[in-house]
Structure formats: C-alpha cells, structure tokens
Amino acid sequence: MKNSQAVLLSIKEKQIQYRSYTFTEAVLHWHTFYEFEIYLEGDGELKVNGRSYKIEPGTVSFMRTTDFQEINLRKKAKIRLVQISPELMPEELRAYFTSYSGDFVKTLNREDFDRIMRILDILEAELNIDPRDKFTFKSIEHISFSLLSVLLRCFDLENEAGGVSVNKTIYPILSYINEHFRENITVEDIAAKFFLNSNYFCSLFRKETGSKCGDYIRNLRMNHAVRLVTLTKLSITDISGESGYNSISSFLRDFKKHFGVSPTKMRKDNPQKKDM
Hints:
This protein is of the alpha+beta class. It has 2 domains: 2-159, Jelly Rolls (Sandwich); 170-269, Homeodomain-like (Arc Repressor Mutant, subunit A). 44% of the residues lie in helices and 26% in strands. Strand 3 and strand 4 (51-55) form a beta hairpin. It starts with a strand and ends in a 7-residue tail after the last helix.
C-alpha cells in the first residue's frame, strides 16, 4: 500500500475511517467491521466468498462481517474506502445488508458512480474538519447513511425476493448474531441480551426468519468454517475456535453433519492456493 491517507473518527464504540490509496494486491481476509470500496483505477480480479468478479474503474464492493475477500491485480488499483463499525450503522440498514444472500460487488453506471463520488467528497471534507465541532459526528453519520442507502438502491435490495422481516424487533437480533457468531454465544445468551423470555425469543425468531435460532447460528459458523478450510492454511483446531466453537469435537460433529465429510477430507479433496 502507498499514497495512503487515513482519517479516523471515533466516539465510544462508533468508528468510521476513510482512506484513499493505491495498492497491488490483498491476500484473503475478512473483517469485524463493514467496508465499502470503490475502484477509480485498476484491472484484475476480486474474489468474494470464493466467487470471482472483474475489477475495473467504477467497480464497487461492500464487505460484511461474514464475507471473505481476496484481490489480484494485473496493474495497480486506486480506490476510495470507508470502514464502518457495526455500532455506527442503523439497525434497519444492517438488517438489509445482512439478510441479502448474494455478494455486494458491481460495476456502477456513470450516474450512480458520480453520485457516490460526490457523497465521498463531502464525507472526506467533513472528516478533515479541524477543529471538529459538536455537529461533526452527526454530520458524518448522516453522510455515511446516504452512501449506504445509495449502495442499497444500486443493488435494488428492496425488490429482492424474501426482503427483510417487517417485525423490527428482529433487526438488532439478526445484526448481533451476524457480527458475533464467531464468539461462543448461545440462544439463551442472545435472548437475555435483548431482555426476552427464551421461549418467546425462539418462537419470534422462527416466525420471522423461518429457521430456529440455533440452526441459524450453526449455518453461519459452518459457512465461515468451510471457507477457512478450503481457502486458508489454518489448522482445524484454529478454524474450530475462529468459527465460534470451544470444543473441537462439537465442531467436527457439526461439520460432518452439515457437509457430509470431515474438514480434513474436504481440505484434501479441494486443494487450492492458500495465502494464510
């Protein structure tokens, strides 16, 4: 990385960072925050969750806490990037992003590209205000929400089949699970966090999502684990811990039940270039 300029704004857990820089590659990685990128220059391949996309000027990507990303370039890329902590995003926006089953990668048309660039110009100007006054943080929050709202419209998410649950009680619950499934959380822990009776919570979750909460968490963990198994060099024990398990035997049992093979067998049957 070079020509990097980073501006960070942080208030308690809420953080937003803006950067503009040039780079040549990015090895396989994932985040505990949300990351928005727009390519101004570049030619190459962006891999998200094992799926390949062409990088060209105007390509935009949005990485969630459950996404894996790898970048391979034929020539240097210039991007503008915004990193946003989960605590900064409104629950409804987080619910839209986490409920979408596809990848957020697209080459924008000129109108959408220009609109996003204008928002980024305003965001950069606000982040560079010195000294910052009491209205700066609220201004930056609203600009960030505008950016994310435009991104959602670019993917026409409101018209996606399935949509987001109409019961807003579930928004923060889904967001919390998607951001913390790699920790040793239980259904009881989640119900208690949201001050809900366990039985009511389980009934609400199944009604609004169509699946049991335990199954939802297990699916997130398995999807994360299989990417680590097939795309990285991490040991199976480390993958178990990274996927939210504190028992290797429980991890192996769930993996075999979910995929029909052990993680060791899957790795052997799927040899790939592994960067980690």
